[in-house]
Amino acid sequence: MLIYLRVLKESFNFAINALKNNKLRTFLSLVGVTIGIFSIIAVLAAVDSLKKEIEGSISSLDNSTIIVMRFSFGPTEIPRWKWQQFPDVTYDEYQYIKRNVPNVEAASFALNVPSETIKYEDKTISNAEIGAITHEYYDIEALQIAEGRFFNESESISGSNVLVIGDQIAQTLFGSAQAAIGKKARIYGQKFTVIGVLKKEGSGLFGNSKDEAMLLPVNVVRKIYGDNNRSTFPQIIVKPEKDVDNAEFIALLKQKLRLSRGLKPDEVDTFFVNQLQGFADFIDDITGQMNIIGLVISGFSLLVGGFGIANIMFVSVKERTNLIGIQKSLGAKNKFILLQFLFEAVILAVIGGLIGLVLVFFVSLLASQFTGDFEFVLSLKNMFIGTAISAVIGLISGILPAISASKLDPVEAIRTGM
Q: Which stretches make up the ABC3 transporter permease C-terminal domain (predicted)?
């Protein structure tokens, strides 16, 4: 065992000395590997960061949450022309689901409506996001209130002019969350009383933070837009009880909705039941494909780097033929010569890989500064992958030159080098 450790140590020292003695060659070899590793790890880090951001934007909702609407989150076999004619879900159907579908923990009715301007005295915020929802949405998303409260069932049903706002709106219009409570702001030409301020979230990549959002009882917005406005995209959000079989729950939900709409057995559903788990799986598929495409493209850069190392190693064997012959004549074993050149190739590749990782780290820090709250993440897993790939590339690139060096005849090697 000690003999093998000594062989490894001597091989390592020979490799380091060879790299130091040929600085320009070493640098040129490092460039190819550095670019290749940088490309691969940058792609992995970017995709991981994007996936983390998307998952973070829906993390407040349970994956079992179901959204019923006339659109599908993912691909569907129903032709586009057909599902575009589907009727919107209605407020009455939301109430029907609450009454007739068992194992529902909470159900909410929501409208997607355009952004609106909010005014308070001489201060104005344009394009503030509107969340038109019923009171149950508070339990579905587990909203966090920093000051005040959320609107209750009575206010939700009657369509009271009450308002829950995001932290940024509170700071801009009123100076603080505490000062906002009880103030009357103007939206849709009407006065709304601020009864709650949401806890600060920070902005996301897709601008979906609630810091600049306003939550209103949906029945207020229904009075303004009406129930037959196709631009409001109504949806029923359902959260099943825990430990409920989701497949059975969805099947029963569809059955009840079909019954409510009077659909015949041979007719297709005129609605889509979208589950967030399906959306999460869809995101995983997309990011997986992005990883594969990025790795294939980056692999070409790494391939060029590998060929560069192999070429340099063949040149190194040629230059050191005389030294190899002397080493063998003095008793050096073939495995010693083999390990010597393999170590040189692996060390060269790993150094290039580490430089690539450092570049990714600094680029990710710089990119995070320019993208606000979106954070590029260089995980330990990706760092390990980058180092491992570097070592493998060095091993593959150096194996043939190392074998050719180990098989040289000592007499011929000395004669050739003279």
A: 296-410
pTM for this prediction: 0.61
Give me the residue label for tokens 């729950």. Answer: 249
* Among 129, 145, 127, 148, residue whose Cα is nearest residue 137: 145
Backbone phi, psi, residue 372, to 5°: 70, -125
Angle (deg, nearest 10), helices 334-370 and 276-319: 140
Q: Which residue is it, tokens 């190693």?
A: 313
Long-range contacts of 209-212 (CB under 8 A, 24+ apart): 209/166, 209/373, 210/129, 210/131, 210/143, 210/166, 211/166, 211/167, 211/168, 211/169, 212/125, 212/128, 212/129, 212/166, 212/168, 212/169
CB 375 within 8 A of CB 368: yes
Q: If we measure between CA atoms, which residue out of 330, 302, 287, 312 comes closest to residue 392? A: 302
What b/e readout covers 279-300, taking b as 16+ CB neighbours within 10 angstroms? beeeeeeebeebbeebbeebee
Can you point out the beta strands (E) in 5-138? 66-69, 104-111, 116-120, 123-133
Contact by Cβ (8 Å): 29, 309: yes
